[in-house]
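Running this now, will post back.
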Amino acid sequence: MNDGSVMMNFYKNVCGRKGFTLIELVAVTAMLGVLAGMLLPSIDSANKKAKNAKLKNDLLTVDSAIQLYKMENGKCPEKLEDLVSEYIARNKGFQDATNTVFSYATADNGLNYTLKGNDAEGKEVVSDGSKQS
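Update: finished.
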């Protein structure tokens, strides 16, 4: 046999196939699994960063609403729900990055307050407007 006939037989065998072999399917599936495994940590990290950014933004929004309420009423609201509709457009649940409700407490006859929540790692984050006791 010469090289031309070997190539012709190879070409006929390759071009005549109508599907993938089991080995080819397993190899592609394994490669996709490895790629997905490499992406998961970065996706998780991005998710935590997004939750922490949302927490800081929500604390800032609620802080601003409390300050406005305090200027108009002379004291802090007794509960966060008092801010809904007039100072905050809608109640989004006032939840932190771990889906726990913000901790809110007033002190000094309603003149000071503490507002805090937990970030995605579970660390406590206190709002900028809070007074530390």
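Residues 22-73 form the longest helix (52 residues). More later if anyone needs it.
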